[in-house]
Specification:
By secondary structure, the protein is mainly alpha-helical. The strands form three sheets. It has a three-stranded antiparallel β-sheet, with no helix packed on it. A two-stranded antiparallel ribbon has the order 1-6. A two-stranded antiparallel sheet has the order 4-7. It is globular, with a radius of gyration of 19 Å.
Length: about 210
């Protein structure tokens, strides 16, 4: 979730001010005009479901203007505070107040999400469903509602995120094995799917941006 206090962003060429985005399995180009003045709030998916109160599959793979989900004046109120400490405190009050009367997350969904996160997507979905006493169909349905993706797609995203974080620390074949990919070509294919580039190009571009 992004609160913007100035001109905002362009997302795949479309102008956005404050917005919320869901989990996604494809690359997106996010640009600004030279600087950004605002706040980024990163939420675990089930907390986003509590806060935004919409099925998260409606946000998966896209972004939505924040005024369609939260009070229109939220970014303006937070941005009007004079210091960052006051902005953080005001944001905490706003979010805590909205979460206080939200419907709690499904305990089974939280359990399954934490299991997938802890194993970087390696945990078998069928095993998790059995541990919950759920069918795979029920688990997939609840995940789409409160996480945005199915458990299988979530596991795929988490495997890629681990590979991305470890890229450059070992050979590509070692990385593929460490992160649960079938082989190096599978790893390369996933990098292309998620980033639009090969692993080498992705690392080069990341190094250029960091410089």
């Amino acid at each position: 979730m992004i609160l913007t206090f100035d001109d905002g962003w362009r997302i795949d060429g479309e102008r956005r001010a404050s917005f919320a985005g869901g989990l996604r399995l494809d690359p997106v180009v996010t640009e600004h005009d030279g600087g950004m003045h605002g706040l980024q709030i990163s939420l675990v998916p089930w907390a986003a479901h509590m806060l935004l109160r919409v099925p998260l599959h409606e946000l998966a793979g896209t972004s939505v203007p924040l005024e369609e989900l939260l009070p229109v004046e939220l970014a303006e109120r937070i941005g009007a505070e004079r210091t960052w400490e006051a902005r953080f405190a005001a944001l905490d009050r706003e979010l805590a107040g909205r979460l206080a009367d939200a419907t709690p997350p499904d305990a089974g969904v939280v359990f399954a999400w934490k299991r997938l996160r802890a194993t970087h997507g390696a945990a078998r979905v069928g095993v998790i469903a059995s541990e919950l006493g759920w069918s795979r169909k029920r688990l997939a349905s609840r995940f789409r509602e409160e996480i945005g993706l199915t458990p299988k797609a979530s596991a795929r995203l988490l495997r890629f995120e681990r590979a991305r974080s470890l890229a450059g620390t070992m050979t590509w074949s070692e990385l593929a094995f460490a992160c649960g990919f079938v082989d190096q070509p599978h790893l390369i294919a996933e990098f292309r799917a998620f980033t639009g580039s090969t692993p080498e190009t992705f690392l080069q571009d990341t190094a250029v941006r960091a410089a």
